[in-house]
Amino acid sequence: LFAANAGSAPTLEALEELLIAADLGPIVAGQIIAALHQRLGRRDLKELRHVEETVKEEILSVLKATTPPPLSADPDARPRVFLFLGVNGSGKTTTIGKFAKRLIDEGGKVIVAGADTFRAAAIEQLQVWGKRVGAHVVCHQAGADPSAVVFDALQAAVARQATHLLIDTAGRLHTKRNLMEELKKIHRVISRQMPGAPYERFMVLDATSGLNALAQAREFHDAVGLTGLVLTKLDGTAKGGIVVAIAQHLKVPIAFVGLGEGLDDLQPFSPEAFTDALFV
Amino acid sequence: GLAERLALVFKRLRGHGRLTEENIIEALREVRLALLEADVNFKVVKGFIERVRERAVGREVLESLTPGQQVVKVVYEELVGVLGSTRVPLAYAQDSPSALMLVGLHGSGKTTTAAKLGRWLLSEGRSPLLVAADQTRPAAREQLQILGNSLGLPVFVGTGTSLQVCQESRAVAKERGHNPLILDTSGRLHVDEPLMQELVAIKQAMCPAEILMVADAMTGQDAVNSALRFDADLGLTGFVLTKLDGDARGGAALSIRSVTGKPIKFVGVGEKLDALEPFHPDRMASRILG
Ligand SMILES: Nc1nc2c(ncn2[C@@H]2O[C@H](COP(=O)(O)OP(=O)(O)OP(=O)(O)O)[C@@H](O)[C@H]2O)c(=O)[nH]1
Ligand SMILES: Nc1nc2c(ncn2[C@@H]2O[C@H](COP(=O)(O)OP(=O)(O)OP(=O)(O)O)[C@@H](O)[C@H]2O)c(=O)[nH]1
Ligand SMILES: [Mg+2]
Ligand SMILES: [Mg+2]
Q1: Which of A155, A210, B72, B280 is deepest in the core (most CB within 10 A)?
Q2: pLDDT at B65
Q3: B52 Cβ partners below 8 Å, 6+ apart?
Q4: Closest CA relative to residue A211, chosen from B122, B223, B190
Q5: pLDDT tier for residue A7 given thresholds of 50, 70 and 90
Q6: Phi-psi region for residue A181, left (φ > 0), alpha (ψ -120 to 50) or beta?
Q7: Does residue B67 have its Cβ closer than 6 Å to ligand 2?
Q8: How far apart are CA B90 and CA B254, in angstroms?
Q9: Please, which contacts does A31-38 make with residues 24 or more away whose CB atoms are closer than 8 Å?
Q10: Could you give the C-alpha distances from B282 to B2, B37, B237, B254, in angstroms and in order?
């Protein structure tokens, strides 16, 4: 019994620190450790390997509770619309380039909308990507109304019989009321123009983000109803554990992970690979 | 916030008579939780709590009528102490063109900050030259050019490698009397060896008076990893913490200052080019405490 006691305390503390270091946050980390006490008897806590497997199961059960939306061409031949949104610098524009490449490789016809009309050279950046992958880019001049760009892009997607329309929006902090209203307006334009058509709202999140990402996800989810998450920059040293809290609280599935700056650096999210990586 | 939670802790403890050192452990647990929730790195929190503990078990807290408030005061003062109670200005060479180099992870705000610093230096009577040393990101040069144009600031765009662009820009600056050179480099991972070596080469060629790491205020636990590597490889002279106009608590500020000892010199508080302020440790301390 003494041995069990001696082994379990440092193990659990180290485990909680590992989870915190991975950005799961102290609350979620604490909940997982508490659940561990519930599920395992005193003897089992000594076995670090067993403990680790149990924690992985806890995390996997949260991540697997949701499944990502379908991505392939719509059987009814309507363009599948994807709205990409998120805070500044998270990787939205680059993710659109990579996603367009993936869809085109699978035989899709992709249109991209340059609805970031605010940031310097945002349209030019998207145009480079469009050219790289062979996607038609719909854009207006800098400073144009983003909703007008979206409206035009929806029309173009239908007219050109595109399989997918990917919409790039300006980075915005979720605390900025006017920018969130702008996003809601874009959302309304799409919903009104394409009622019943397949329409996804993906938040693009930087894996280096801390707990503020949960507040971001809440605000964006309230604004447009997120249907997916893309976790970028997972090729760095950050673990992106905040997505566990997001999955737990908001039930938004993670569709993709970004693993670099190149065309092919977008992978479908694997809950197992992600969870294993937390412990490396 | 922390003050309310500590008030509850001490209300309960007070019911058992005089406060003891044991009781303080409970209060410190609340402090630890508050700092972790603010995204301060867990190792940094450990060290910081030790500093607080020494003062928290002293008479100033144990004999106070409002021990909760005393603990908050101690935490606040220790935070300000670590964050840097003295202002560190931008370094500058008067005679030949000085270089100010901006480095950091992808999307942290380097290009925007380069233009903001250009505007700042202009208002101080300098004549900066913005250097578009990011040769990889699509339209990075155009981005800096548009920003520079909006301020009436010259932007140097060159061909070749980032290193070559930086070297060429020095000749241009000498010729036209620009000072300093503001080098906007590509975003990169601290674990990307060749790209970190590229920065070392640029540093060796340009001998910058300032090497500032531009870091996102919403960075979580990973902030120490990138800050330590950039500092180890380059010898940073300071940080710029961006996107503080959001509601991230900004614990990364304590983390990066704590592990590198380098000062945070500026904060970015918006996307517009006038949204740059000198760092205020007292404001940051209040923000981290929530
Ligand atoms: N290493 C790495 N870098 C990435 C990844 N995704 C994007 N980036 C880089 O992150 C930086 C920002 O990417 P953008 O696509 O411009 O981000 P954004 O969200 O569109 O930015 P704003 O429009 O300004 O809000 C660029 O340097 C990208 O190359 C990724 O998965 N891994
Ligand atoms: N709200 C806010 N946005 C900022 C701030 N600083 C930069 N940004 C935004 O953050 C995004 C990324 O900024 P960039 O200057 O392109 O970042 P970067 O570090 O040069 O990106 P890479 O070169 O790809 O590594 C842009 O949308 C900027 O407008 C800030 O202080 N507040
Ligand atoms: Mg963008
Ligand atoms: Mg840049």
Answers
A1: A210
A2: 84
A3: B28, B31, B71, B74, B75, B78
A4: B223
A5: very low
A6: alpha
A7: no
A8: 20
A9: A32/A58, A32/A59, A36/A12
A10: 16, 19, 21, 12
What is the residue whose two structure tokens read 């379990």?
A8
Distance CA A254, CA A274 (A): 11
B151 close contact with A: CB closer than 8 A: no
Task: Decide: B256 and B284 in contact? Cβ < 8 Å.
Answer: no
pLDDT tens sequence across B147-172: 999 999 999 999 999 999 999 999 99
Residue B262: what are its φ and ψ, rounded to 5°? -90, 150
Tokens of A80: 């599948």
CA distances from B136 to A91, A195, A254, B233 (A): 15, 40, 28, 21
Dihedrals phi, psi of B42, to nearest 5 degrees: -60, -30
Residue numbers in B near A120 (CB within 8 A): 142-143, 146-147, 150
* Angstrom distance (rounded) from CA A145 to CA A118: 9
pLDDT in tens, B214-270: 999 999 999 999 999 999 999 999 999 999 999 999 999 999 999 999 999 999 999
Q: How many residue pairs from chains A and B have C-beta atoms closer than 8 A?
A: 128
The predicted pLDDT at position A1 comes to 36
Q: Rounded to the nearest 10 degrees, what angle do helices B21-37 and B67-84 cross at? A: 50
Task: Give the number of the atom of ligand 1 that is nearest the alpha carbon of residue A172.
Answer: 25
